[in-house]
Amino acid sequence: MYLKAISIQNYRNLEPVSMALGQGFWAVLGENGQGKSNLLEAVSVLCMGRSRKADRDRDLVRFGESFMRLEGRFSREQRGDLESVVRVSEEGKELLLFGSAVTRLAKFIGEASCVLFNSNDVEMVLGEPSGHRLFLNEALGQVNQAYLFDLGRCRRALEQKNRALKDVRKGYAPASSIGIWDTQLSQHGGRVCARRDAFLRRLGDEAARLYTRLSGGAEELETRYAPSAGMPDDPQRWTEQIAERIAERKQDEILRGIALVGPQRDDFTMTLDGADVRSFASRGQARTAALALRLAQCRIAFEDTGEWPIVLLDDVFAELDVSRRQLVAELAGEAQQVFASSASESDLPSEMQPAARVIRVCRGSIAIEENAGAVQA
Amino acid sequence: MPSYFTRPLSKLVGELEKLPGVGPKSAQRLAFHILRLTAEEVESLSQAILEAKEHVRACSICYNYSDQDTCEICRDARRDRSLLCVVADARDLVAFERTSEYKGLYHVLQGVISPMDGVGPEMLRIRELQKRIAEDGFQEIIVATNPTIEGDATAMYLAAILKPLGLKVSRIAHGMPVGGDLDYADQATLVQSLEWRREM
């Protein structure tokens, strides 16, 4: 999959621009703080319908403007071309596919796909379970629409359950009123967990293989699902597993007025030769693990959808040594289209440089450099 | 009610807050909106409420809207009195009636269980449903709440109290829309239709 053309209006600090793009490597160059990351983020918003970074959609609108609009034309091998629009204004967010409004984010995500690598990935690897869940929801949701649907139902059931628990705690409702929400949460949660489990097994295997290559075989990376309900003995019995754990903690849940078991409390752990990455890994090891995870995400998206997502490497190379730069360029280079941002052209791997066309970003204005070594579109 | 509302305003907020699905915040918003209306608009709103209240009532049997004590459906002798379809809302009843296929009776719950909206089972017409079932000898109860989290939870609640009575309790099917194209169905619908598949 690749982006054939993009049009950007009032997005963060970026000047309005419409440009035709094509397959291959694109070097996005410019000093720090000029808008390189915003350009890559704009591409990811066109695919995911929202930004990983911005808490509110409003934050994507350029300061002083009333709306922002992104439009992309994608070439897809499997499902034909795609036109998508993301528009954020005071009335809210609008998502359009081929000009028709899509009311649910779950139906928008996955139509076009990309994987955004950036320096926050290291924090994700080392950080809180909530960051791990976010990664998981993004990576899995992109290839599995039904997962997002189940996740949405799960969240709704959780909200209702938490309210019911508070009502019971305050004595407004009998304890028996929680049961129907427990059932909803374990039914939809069971499907969410089953998918997470299966996905993390594949992702973990792929990430382990990639970590070995990236680290030169130094250590072995293991990624393991850590569901809050624990692993069931039988993978068919996720719903029962969650229901049983909920039943065990019933009193505790009522006392605290909040659900303590379910996909909302899941995590996954990563270990290097058995040592927890969060506690023991060096920054370099965590960075390699993050790269391995993102590359594994690309590979699985390819296996599941039949095409490579667009790869967005936001200032990834500066922190890597030469051999790793080349390896990342080689692995990511399987994608039809790669955007790699950097403050310095010399940080880009040598094998990317001759093939790459250059997008220059300066104080928010974006221009394709005509004289750069061109590749066929 | 906090003291920073003047008394008439706090009374209005209090009244609005009693409505289903209206929390304190919404009640405030509605009250402030009403205060901004012209005197004629408020008059017309209160007249409409009074008139509707005077002329439209809930059927004393099924809780469908009616301008008489019992609704047309409950009075209709040609209806199949062994079959009862339980819906959340009178609008759902209308949807079924439009098909002119269903010949049984209805029971309108007047909502679904939703703690977030402050709606518990005791606020729905469930006791009345139990009473009807005990007296009227239905053979099958069809639970036709929407396949949303709240609709499903309400269906589950009903099944738990109705099944012990020894009658058939069924749930409406969900999955592929009729005349739908598999190619165009979203993944969630397809997964559901696989899950709810039936033997031929």
Order of helices and strands of chain A: EEEHEEEEHEHHHHEHHEEHHEHEEE
The succession of helices and strands of chain B, N to C, reads: HHHEEHEHEHEHEH
The value of Rg of chain B in angstroms is 21 Å
Strand-residue proportion of chain A: 15-25%
The CATH architecture designation of the largest domain in chain B is 3-Layer(aba) Sandwich
Give the N-terminus to C-terminus distance of chain A in angstroms. 13 Å
Low-confidence stretches of chain B: none
What is the strand arrangement across the widest sheet of chain B?
4-3-5-6
CATH superfamily of one domain in chain A: RecF/RecN/SMC, N-terminal domain
| Distance separating the two termini of chain B | 60 Å
* Biggest sheet features of chain A: 6 strands, antiparallel
Largest interface: A-B, 24 and 19 residues
Mean pLDDT of chain B: 91
* CATH domain fold name of one domain in chain A: Glutathione S-transferase Yfyf (Class Pi), Chain A, domain 2
Question: Helix- and strand-based class of chain A?
Answer: alpha/beta
Number of helices of chain A: 11
Percentage of β-strand residues of chain B: 5-15%
Strand arrangement, major sheet of chain A: 2-1-4-5-6-7
Q: Fraction of residues of chain A in helices? A: 40-55%
Question: How does this model look, in words?
Answer:
- The complex is a heterodimer of chains A (377) and B (200).
- Chain A is α/β, with parallel strands linked by helices.
- Chain A has a domain at 114-306: Glutathione S-transferase Yfyf (Class Pi), Chain A, domain 2 (Up-down Bundle), CATH 1.20.1050.
- Chain A contains 11 helices and 15 strands.
- In chain A, the strands form 3 sheets. A 6-stranded antiparallel β-sheet of chain A has the order 2-1-4-5-6-7, covered by helices on one side.
- In chain A, helix 6 (179-215) crosses helix 7 (238-248).
- Helix content of chain B is 44%, strand content 10%.
- Chain B folds into 2 domains: 7-55, Helicase, Ruva Protein, domain 3 (Orthogonal Bundle), CATH 1.10.8.420; 79-195, Dna Topoisomerase Vi A Subunit, Chain: A, domain 2 (3-Layer(aba) Sandwich), CATH 3.40.1360.
- The mean pLDDT of chain B is 91.
- In chain B, helix 1 crosses helix 2 (24-36).
- Chain B has 8 helices and 6 strands, in the order αααββαβαβαβαβα.
- In chain B, the strands form 2 sheets. Chain B has a 4-stranded parallel β-sheet with strand order 4-3-5-6.
- By secondary structure, chain B is α/β, with parallel strands linked by helices.
- The A-B interface holds A 106-107, 144-146, 148-150, 153, 156-157, 159-161, 163-164, 167, 173, 177, 180-181, 183-184, 188 and B 113-116, 120-121, 148-150, 152-154, 156-157, 186-188, 190-191.
